[in-house]
Structure formats: structure tokens, C-alpha cells
Design a protein that fits this description.
It contains 13 helices and 38 strands. By secondary structure, it is an alpha+beta fold. It has a domain of about 325 residues: Alpha/Beta hydrolase fold, catalytic domain (Rossmann fold, 3-Layer(aba) Sandwich). Strand 35, helix 8 and strand 36 form a beta-alpha-beta unit. GO terms for molecular function: oligopeptidase activity; serine-type endopeptidase activity.
Amino acid sequence: MTRTAPTTRIGADVDERAGVAFPDPYHWLEGDGPEVQRWQDEQGEAAAAWVRDWPHFDRLRESVSRFQTARFEPLPRAAGGRWFRTTVPEGRTQASVVVADEPAGEGRVLFDPVQEDPARPPFVSWISPSPDGRVLAVGVCTDGSEQNTVRLVDVTTGAALPGAPTQTLMDNWTSGAHWLPDSSGFFFAGIDGRAVDLSQRVWLHRNGTTTQVDVPWLPGSDYRMVVVSRDGRYAVAVQRMMDPVPVAVARLDDDPAALVWRPFLTDVGGSVAGHLLGDAWVAVTDVGAPRGRLVRIPLDAPSDWEEVVAESDAVLRSVTPVGDALYLAEFVDTYARVRIVDPAGRELGEVPLPGRGALVELPFPMMNLGAARPSDEFLFAFSTLTSSAGTYRHRQSAPDLEVLTEPAVAIEDAVVEDGWATSADGTRVPYHLVRRTDVPLDRPQPAMIYAYGGFNAPWVPSFPGVMAAFVAAGGVFVHGHLRGGAEFGREWWEGGRLANKQNGYADLYAIAEAVIADGVTAPDRLAVTGGSNGGLMAGVAATQRPDLWAAAIPRVPLLDVIGACRDGYGNWVVRLEFGDPDDPAEVRRMAGFSPYHLVEDGVAYPPVFLDSGDTDPRCPPWHARKFAARLQAATAGPAPVLLRIWRNVGHGWATDKEIALTENTEWLAFAMKVLGMRP
């Protein structure tokens, strides 16, 4: 194998943070001028040529096409006696919006992105029908960045309605439009300025007019949204994406445009994520219960918390009101369980899940709070490590699940095996192995570890999507659970964030060493990958422990932890999860897991493939550019360091299906070529 990327010029820039100076020789790659674009294009051409030189590329693409499924499939939404959902028609690359009489009914198309732009159909970020079912609000993203603007559609005629708000939404993380009970308007969160500044405002759009909602928010940058209680009496302002709290409440009896807000929970150090039921906030909290408990907090007495369901050995993740019952989603040794209780906390039963796997939930607590709205029936999606998601409906009056849509694809003749590794500090860390039953473990096999470990996001044992093609080709897929996630509650998150961030990387190395010691694989047959924070993880793994890996694939990564602090979004991410960028000691500690700063000249690094999008505001492409350039210049030996930046692609949520197919085939082809595999 030879490196084919071009040589990159070196600058004399220095990056300084809290008085600590770092050489920044590739600072110029943070720009987007003609020189950077030419360099990026040359890098992409070299990367594409390298993976397409593998004779099995086209066969792998066919396999990836079969297994490529959405990780977070939105559920149908009920309103006005009808059901609204997104679906990708045969032969299309983006989803349309359909209205039907049943959740999975055939229905008719309400919004077709091809009609907006036949050459490059936009992405439907979110949908939200009005309570009376007469108007559909749709978030539309045109450049892959996830930033979207609102369209309003007349449900009866399918015609576009005038007067939609003009503000840009950051993404779909706050669930788009939250309608008033009389269907006269909705709240939504929009950005003020650039997406990378993370300056969010909440707006009320009503009767064709959009006004800013003035709420006594907590200080600092973070996500925020206003939701409406099911009975329509209250609006609730919620803040903090990773550990949300209801900061203020207002009655909707009077004019919604002149709401009087009163503070609710403004001094809470943990998560209090739930729903307003009657005159109380019913929520899952980790305050006083790291694994979660269910509490009821009266609106007129926010200090009087009543415990409804106590903490247990299971991890209580979320609550969904369904009729007069509460459905509690839990983790038991990482796998999903759903219990049903009455408003007093008495057990009513358990949902008979269709296997041992995971609910298809959004990764961060506020996202699920916005998406899991009270209903009269429990709709959910569920997948396993070997089968893609199906959608199901549960009613308390019926003993069995109703299957709405069957899983689209499964890995044939596959087996899942659970394992535990012991991390450097003695913590037991779980992982799962997925392999074909005819792949023996009496000798080292090609394997790939996929993990995340951050931001209170559970890395649930769900279908691995395109990595199923890796398993189908005879590889062993290793799904890891690192500290920093939420699989074991608040302490699992705290154990891998801020001053403890290195613990998550130690957990990764422990899993790698365990599967090597067990003879499952060997360092020359083991790859590591992850996206976003998992992309950082893969970059850290390649630079801290290059001896462990045959290949590393950081995808949509953040790789310059120090430089990330220069924009609002990066600064928020760093302060939330990594450390205090104003403290010199903290800056030096963070440099110890910042891959761009870890690279040393003359080290034999493993083959690396970097995959990023040019419209990504969360992990901008300059992270991947700078790290690629630094690694290409420093690494000893012939191992390739390849970079692929995709145009009109962001963090991955809004990528065109056809572009995603090529993108996923390329990075997976890189791994399989290095590991000596074939589809």
C-alpha cells in the first residue's frame, strides 16, 4: 500500500488557548478559499482512486445498498383522525410526506421534495401536523447541513400555504413545530446568525406573524424549545440538550402572543425530562438517582418532588404518557425493556418486545422529550443487532404487539454474543459480537469496533446498518459501550466526560485487547470506526494506540479539540463534554486526547480514512483536513492516510440517499481492502 495524497504546505501559525501555545502548521486548511478547495479535491480524488482500485468495490456497493437503513426512522404522527409519516418511494433518494388513515396505510403524498428541486431534491428534516390535521408543517433542508426552513401544506388539497416563518432552524433536534391546541400556530426554535455560533431563539408563529418568545432562560448557549401540554392549558420552556430541565411555565388561557412566564426548575444539576400532565411535571430524573427514577413535580410547588417509581437496577431512560398509563423505557445490561405503570407508579405490565435489542430512539434526552409526545397508543420502532427496525403498536387492551411494518432486512444466519472487558481502572465494560454462524472463532478474524462514548447518549444494541455488509462478508462486528454514554445512567456519563474523558478511550482499548486475547481477532485484522464524537474516538485510538489497529476510520470527526473552541458550537461542545478551555491545566489535559496535537513525526500509524461533509456545522470539515495533512506528513511507512470531504453533506442526518450509498461504500471498502476481505 502506498500513500497517494499530495504533499501539503506547512504554515507557521500558532494556536493559543488560556495562555497555552500550540503549533498549528495546517491552520490555513480552516479556510474555504480556492487553494483549500483545490487541495481538498486532490485529496478526494486520491481517496476515491485508492478504494476503487479494490476489485470488489461494485459488489460491496450492492451489499451496502441492501443494508443501508436509517438509524433514526421517524414514527408516524397522528392528528385530526389521520396519520402522517415520511417514506422514501422506490427509485427516489429523499423522503416524501404521506397522509393516511392508518400509521402504515398507503395514503397520498402531501409533500414531494422532487417538486421543489428535481435536480437535487431537498431533505425532509421533520414533520408536524396541526392538532386538527388540516395543516402540515415541514422542515426542508437543501444543502445537507440539517439547517432547514419551514413549509406549510394544506392537508386537504396538498397545496403550499403562504406566510410560513422565514427563520432558519438549526436541525431537527427540537422536533420542529410545537402546535398550539387550537391549531392557530406553533412554537419553534430558530438560529440567530450562523449555525456554528449556536445562538438559538424560540419563536411563535401564529396567524401569519412570527414573534420572538421572551422566556427567562438559563444563562449560556444550549438548545431550547417550548412544548405545549396535551390538555392545551400550558406552555413549557425546556433547556439543555443532554440533561433537559423545564425552566419556565406559562398558561395558554390568554393570548399566546402575550404569555406570562414564571420560573419553574432553574437550579437543578441533573436531568428532569418528562411531560406536563394536569398541573404537574411527570419526569424521569437522575437527580438523587443516577440510574433514574420517575417523579411528579407540582407546577405551583416546584420544590415538592413526589417519587412515583423508585430507582432500580435497570436504567430508566424516558417516560411516554399513553392514555391513562405511563410507558417507561429502560436499559437492562444495555438491552431495551418497556414497563407500564399507572399514574401512582403501580405496575400494569410490560410491553412484549419483538426480540433482544433496542428501541429506535433519538440519541439525546431533549430530542426524545420533543419526539415522544403523549398519545392514546404506544407506537415504537425496534431493531436488533441482526435485523433492521420494524414499527409496532401496543395497546393495553391487547396482549400482543401489532406489527405495522416488518423489518426491511436482516443479516442471515448471524449470532450475537455478549462480552465484558475490564478497563484500566477495573471497570467492567460491555460489548457485543455479531458474526455469521459459519465464521469460526478458533483463529483471528477481520473485525471492526464501532463505539461512541459521549454526551449522555446511549449506544444502544441496534441494527448496524451498512456495517451489516461487513458481517455478511465474514467480518466480526464489535459494538462497544464506552463510558461517556448513558447505558448505565448518569454515573456512566460522568465517568467518561470532562476530567474523566480518557476513561472512555481506556474502555475502547480494553475491548480491543479482550477480543484480541480471546483470539477473535488480531491487531493486524482489527479496525476501529465511529462518527462525530465517535470520530474523535477513532482519531484518538489511531494516535494514542497505533499498535492496536489495522485501520482507523474517523467519520464526521472533531479532531482539533483546542481549535474547536473558536466557534460557539465547538466551545459549547468542549465545555459540556471535554473541559474548561479557559483553564491552562484543562487545556493541556485536553491536548492529551486531541488527535491533531497527538500526532508525532516518525511514528508508524495505521492506515486511516477520514470522511467528512463540507456543510457540517457541528464538526466542520477543517478538522478532518488538518488531521489528514498532519498525519500524512508525520507517519512512517507506506500506510495510506486518505481524506474524503463530500459536497452538500453535513453531519450525516440529511445526506441524500444515493450520496450516502457511495460515501458508505467508500469508507467500508477502505476497511475491507486493508483487512483483506471481499464481499
